[in-house]
């Protein structure tokens, strides 16, 4: 399986990237996955050019392919003006509106204060609901005081477990389910349609 982390952190080192890495590591403990990180900071110029001319550069096209081909996504943004960063939004603006339909997504954000934690519910979740992605129930927000404090690890593990479960569920949905006796399990609606034909 392929897990892609989209990080919109601007600094090096970045707490946004650190949160993405910790979430990816937690998902990897639950489900075997090849992890790829897309650093939006490195794609800023290509994203701007795509918005103005309609054509992605080579690195941006590769990033879009990675995101749209992933079995699961972790998206992490710093909070600017009580919302996701403009760079983060611009990246998802250049992706086809139907490309993330049904894709499991874990939303996360970082900020200087806990007062911005509702960005997950008021900005990130609606964005990915609009893109018809499947957003895991638990989002992870990390304020400056959360690093090294009690509670962040538990939120990371819970959210990662939810994403891993969705990724496992979607991968098994692609192959016919088989019971313990080896017989193929066919959904009732399919069996009924076959009988009517």
Automatic annotation (TrEMBL):
It comes from the Bacteria. It holds the Pfam family FMN_red. SUPFAM superfamilies: Flavoproteins. GO terms for molecular function: oxidoreductase activity. Residues 1-147 form the NADPH-dependent FMN reductase-like domain. Keywords: Flavoprotein, FMN, Oxidoreductase. The keyword Oxidoreductase applies. This is Oxidoreductase.
